[in-house]
Recover the amino acids of this structure.
């Protein structure tokens, strides 16, 4: 089992980057720092086997192709998927959802259909569906949640009965850190034949997932939130959708035969990966996933949980602080505000006190409207976050309050 | 008649020089500027006067009297509002020619050049653009 110090030693951020001078990074829900192993894997590719994949007979192309497909295998195994072909590499969760939305628009979705999303969605899992709905007289419905963010099951069931063409929801709110009960939601959706897409951009960085067991229809996530490089991500397709989801991106590498009259596409993941993929990014992603398995993400999550619980306990003792979804279990992130003060002002002072947090609407404006706030301050932890980091944050926040409370917004 | 934008900018640079590298003093000064900014008339609190930004909302309106321009501004974030107050001090009640010719280099001199980067995180550049466009 790796200690926090072992894990921190694997990230250049702490020895060579801003962390070396004490800058505390608590914006992991936006992106994570990268371990040496990821940088090394990408470097190795560019130095020793830089070639395009699935195209050449020469040894460089062959070794790059093998490494790329090995990375697919590593990714599939990490997500508990037996068939690696169900893992499609994309540029990230945003592209994954766009590919899915455009693909479904060609076959599955009919004009006037209803798509259900939750109020917690990141804009990435909101805008592609809103675009579709606007263009096809579709309706966006809201996953019925109580004021305490619990599922209203009877209402959800009646929505399913009346016909929902797709349910696309986040596993964990990137703003509040609360988790939706995916297992029960998917079970109910399956009873009514409603396909489910899971945005795992946040959850995948904190918990192992077994997709062969969970059985969503689709799942998306980004490598950069999982300690991997930017510009890489996945779209998971359930077996029934693989090869039947229409292609929305065409080009080289995805075809078996092209003529003026007709093109035949290959089966499997490559069908959806037209053009040269982010090969170095994919190799870096696989390196990140191997490190997470080596460190054991499940153990890391317990530690992250302790940090978040400790953070919440500290925050609720400060009278000027409002914690959102207070008392609810959180994964990765916690949002709060200082009464009477704008998140931007709080974040600006925190930055000067060597703390990186995210302020604003976190690309979740429908949720901000729901909470009736213009923004929040979000603290998000990663596998390298220590209790000292949380203490540094609390100290900086207390100093910030001394400045802010002299003024009224 | 206000002083020229150049002279006002010099005064601001002078004021900030007293804070040295102490960011807390700079931010407190900004918040001080913010709370003393002329109240924003409710009649202008419309989307048409809103400068879009990811982090905080900024309103900017202008009234023209003869050949001089009088600005009103507001923001929901005090530091942002303080930055606008610093911009307005320089251009307030100036002529179109003076405003168009105004250099906002003093923002860099007082150490807020990061706030000028054309990112979605802040709207200082958009504010300057809006001020200049208003008087064209």
């Amino acid at each position: 089992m790796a200690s926090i110090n072992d894990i921190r030693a694997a990230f250049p951020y702490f020895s060579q980057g801003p962390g070396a001078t004490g800058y505390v990074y608590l914006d992991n829900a936006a992106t994570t720092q990268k371990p040496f192993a990821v940088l090394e894997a990408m470097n190795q590719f560019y130095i020793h086997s830089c070639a395009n994949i699935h195209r050449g007979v020469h040894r460089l192309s062959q070794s790059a192709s093998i490494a790329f497909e090995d990375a697919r295998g590593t990714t599939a195994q990490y997500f508990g998927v037996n068939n690696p072909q169900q893992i499609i590499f994309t540029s990230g969760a945003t592209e994954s959802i766009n590919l899915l939305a455009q693909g479904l628009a060609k076959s599955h979705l009919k004009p006037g259909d209803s798509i259900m999303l939750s109020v917690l969605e990141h804009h990435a899992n909101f805008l592609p569906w809103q675009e579709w709905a606007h263009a096809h007289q579709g309706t966006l419905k809201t996953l019925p949640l109580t004021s305490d963010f619990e599922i209203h099951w009877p209402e959800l069931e009646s929505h399913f009965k009346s016909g929902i063409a797709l349910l696309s929801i986040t596993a964990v709110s990137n703003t509040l850190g609360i988790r939706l009960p995916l297992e029960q939601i998917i079970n109910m959706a399956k009873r009514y034949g409603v396909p489910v897409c899971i945005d795992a951009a946040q959850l995948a960085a904190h918990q192992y997932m077994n997709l062969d067991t969970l059985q969503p229809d689709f799942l998306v996530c980004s490598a950069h939130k999982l300690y991997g490089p930017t510009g890489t991500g996945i779209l998971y397709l359930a077996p029934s959708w693989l090869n039947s989801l229409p292609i929305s991106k065409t080009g080289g590498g995805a075809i078996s035969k092209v003529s003026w009259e007709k093109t035949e596409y290959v089966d499997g993941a490559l069908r959806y990966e037209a053009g040269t993929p982010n090969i170095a990014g994919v190799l870096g992603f696989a390196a990140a996933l191997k490190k997470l398995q080596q460190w054991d993400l499940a153990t890391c999550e317990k530690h992250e949980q302790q940090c978040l619980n400790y953070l919440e306990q500290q925050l609720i003792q400060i009278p000027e602080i409002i914690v959102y979804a207070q008392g609810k279990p959180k994964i990765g992130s916690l949002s709060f505000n200082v009464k009477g003060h704008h998140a931007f002002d709080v974040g600006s002072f925190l930055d000067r006190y060597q703390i990186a947090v995210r302020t604003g609407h976190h690309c979740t404006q429908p949720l901000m409207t729901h909470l009736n706030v213009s923004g929040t301050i979000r603290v998000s932890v990663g596998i390298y976050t220590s209790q000292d980091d949380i203490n540094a944050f609390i100290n900086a926040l207390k100093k910030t309050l001394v400045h802010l409370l002299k003024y009224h917004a | 008649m206000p002083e020229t934008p150049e002279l006002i900018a010099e005064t601001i640079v002078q004021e900030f020089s007293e804070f040295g590298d102490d960011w807390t003093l700079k931010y407190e000064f900004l918040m001080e500027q913010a709370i003393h900014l002329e109240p924003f008339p409710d009649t202008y609190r419309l989307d048409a006067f809103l400068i879009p930004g990811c982090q905080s909302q900024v309103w900017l309106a202008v009234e023209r009297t003869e050949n001089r321009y009088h600005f009103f501004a507001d923001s929901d974030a005090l530091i942002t509002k303080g930055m606008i107050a610093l911009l307005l001090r320089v251009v307030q009640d100036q002529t179109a020619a003076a405003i168009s010719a105004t250099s906002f280099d003093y923002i860099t001199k007082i150490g807020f050049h990061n706030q000028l980067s054309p990112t979605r995180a802040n709207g200082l550049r958009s504010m300057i653009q809006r001020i200049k466009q208003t008087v064209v």
Observations:
- The beta strands of chain B are 50-51, 58-65, 68-75, 94-95.
